[in-house]
């Protein structure tokens, strides 16, 4: 159990990878794959893949009970619900009722329980640690995000072909890109070329 920063390395099926910090673990989770055109980005193929993702910081929920295929299906449903509600909020559209129900259903499960380790200075998750508990924690974080002060800071990358969503936690609230190194620089290069081409 750690309180470190969010963010994960995302891999492009066409090659290359980059670090993307969505500003919330639940939004990082939303970028682990998907259905339809996002199936090429899928990283949660088997229950073990979900266990590995949840075990990474900052959640650091190391499973003591094996993840089941049912929990994997629930994880993918929650992931889609987080994705759908984040995009709806970023676009100032009403949140889909089905997605809200899915998030609430996941949040209603028992969450992870922190406990103080014997040394009295570190914390861990009390056993048993189940995937449903970790999913509950992610759902609860999404509820807090959607209903809290950062709700209006949920953004979609300003690039016309990048669907990544994030919480703009910058002080001025002016973040536009998934990362400056990726879409931000591409935009700068296109703008520079356009200026040079303009007589």
UniProtKB/TrEMBL annotation:
Pfam families: ABATE, zf-CGNR. Transmembrane segments: none annotated. Residues 153-196 form the Zinc finger CGNR domain. Gene3D superfamilies: Jann2411-like domain. This is Conserved protein containing a Zn-ribbon-like motif, possibly RNA-binding.
């Amino acid at each position: 159990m750690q309180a470190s920063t969010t963010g994960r390395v995302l891999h492009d099926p066409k090659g290359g990878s980059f670090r993307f910090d969505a500003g919330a673990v639940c939004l990082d989770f939303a970028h682990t794959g998907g259905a339809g055109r996002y199936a090429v980005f899928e990283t949660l193929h088997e229950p073990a893949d979900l266990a590995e993702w949840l075990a990474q910081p900052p959640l650091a929920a190391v499973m003591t009970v094996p993840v089941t295929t049912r929990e994997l299906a629930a994880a993918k449903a929650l992931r889609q619900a987080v994705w759908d509600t984040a995009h709806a909020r970023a676009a100032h559209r009403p949140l889909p009722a089905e997605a809200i129900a899915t998030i609430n259903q996941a949040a209603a499960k028992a969450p992870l329980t922190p406990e103080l380790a014997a040394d009295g200075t570190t914390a861990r998750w009390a056993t048993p640690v189940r995937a449903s508990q970790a999913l509950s924690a992610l759902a609860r974080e999404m509820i807090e995000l959607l209903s809290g002060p950062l709700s209006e800071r949920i953004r979609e990358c300003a690039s016309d072909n990048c669907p990544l969503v994030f919480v703009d936690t910058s002080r001025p609230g002016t973040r536009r890109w998934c990362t400056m190194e990726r879409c931000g620089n591409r935009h700068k290069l296109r703008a520079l070329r356009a200026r040079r081409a303009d007589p």
